[in-house]
Amino acid sequence: MAEGSVSVAEVESSFQKFAVHGDTKATGKEMSGKNFAKICKDCQIIDGKNVTSTDVDIVFSKVKAKSARVITFEQFNQALTELAPKRFKGKDKQEALQQVYGLIAGKQPANMGVTKVAKAAAVDRLTDATKYTGTHKERFDDSGKGKGKAGREDIPDTSGYVAAYKGSGTYDDKVKEA
Q: Are 30 and 61 a contacting pair, CB within 8 Å?
């Protein structure tokens, strides 16, 4: 960690990245409680012993305005000032704050625990078109590709013959013979 050499601009850059994470309407000037908890978790400010997620939520509630749901960068710094001595016990406030800045500087939101595509045997078995039966079988060709609209809809027979008539298409032959 780079103690004492972390600039406020680097911390503000990380603040903006986390502030817009997961929110399409966010401008990066204000951070929600969810994103404040995320920055604390991703940057290891929450260590599970000295600082917990409950501590982070309490500090967030303290620094935000009464009716507000978000904090500005100045309030964010105030929150870090309150969390730093808890995270780094035995150090003076300024030194602890610089170490917290060191944890945050240059970080961006991580997408940990994002749902991945299942590769289970059950899924392969259920999506194998060669094992389909009945009407579902008719929706796919021999290679397993879908037939599209032809496989989904009953295409009307406009030949003029009754369905399943064995002699369909023979009328012209009979007329020519006579």
A: no
Q: Which residue has tokens 């009754």? A: 162
The three-state (H, E, C) secondary structure of the chain, written as one string: CCCCCCCHHHHHHHHHHHHHCCCCCCCCCEEEHHHHHHHHHHCCCCCCCCCCHHHHHHHHHHHCCCCCCEEEHHHHHHHHHHHHHHHCCCCCHHHHHHHHHHHHCCCCCCCCCCCCCCCCHHHHHHCCHHHCCHHHHCCECCCCCECCHHHHCCCCCCCCCCCCCCCCCCHHHHHHHC
Contacts (Cβ under 8 Å, ≥6 apart) of 47: 87
Nearest-CA neighbor of 158 among 171, 170, 149, 168? 168
pLDDT over 70 at 152, yes or no? no
Pairing of strands 30-32, 70-72: antiparallel
What is the percentage of the chain residues whose pLDDT exceeds 70?
A: 88
CA distance 61 to 142: 62
CA dihedral of residues 80, 82, 87, 90 (deg, nearest 10): 130
Q: Which residue has tokens 């600082």?
A: 51
Residue 177 carries which side chain, given as an amino acid letter?
E
pTM of the model: 0.61
